[in-house]
């Protein structure tokens, strides 16, 4: 995950955004592991979707 619908729009404001947010939650809930590109995104995924920290792996982007 590089971003979430909530982060892209500073919140969820309409039905389409809610659908995307709910789909992101379901996909991360069902996943065995979620890969993100920063510690910030790891904290964001845990905060937004209630994922356990140990389920989220950080693999930074390479320059």
Question: What features would you describe in this structure?
Answer:
- The protein is mainly alpha-helical and 63 residues long.
- The chain has one domain.
- It is built from 3 helices and 2 strands.
- A two-stranded parallel sheet has the order 1-2.
- The longest helix is centred in the middle third of the chain and has 16 residues, at 15-30.
Short description:
With 63 residues, the chain is mostly helical. The protein has one domain.
Strand percentage, roughly? Answer: 5-15%
The coarse overall form would be globular
Strand tally is 2
Tell me the number of helical segments per DSSP (H or I, 4 or more residues long): 3
- State the helicity in percent bands: 40-55%
Number of domains: 1
Element-level helix/strand string: HHEHE
Tell me the major beta sheet: 2 strands, parallel
Sequence stretches where pLDDT stays below 50 over 5 or more residues = none
Mean pLDDT equals: 95
Main-sheet strand order equals 1-2
Helix/strand class: mainly alpha
Radius of gyration, in angstroms, nearest whole number? 12 Å
Q: End-to-end distance, in Å? A: 18 Å
């Amino acid at each position: 995950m590089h971003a979430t619908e909530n982060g892209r729009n500073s919140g969820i404001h309409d039905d389409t955004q809610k659908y995307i947010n709910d789909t992101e939650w379901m996909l991360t809930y069902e996943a065995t592991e979620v890969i993100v590109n920063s510690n910030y995104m790891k904290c964001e995924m845990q905060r937004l979707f209630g994922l356990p920290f140990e389920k989220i792996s950080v693999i930074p982007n390479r320059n």
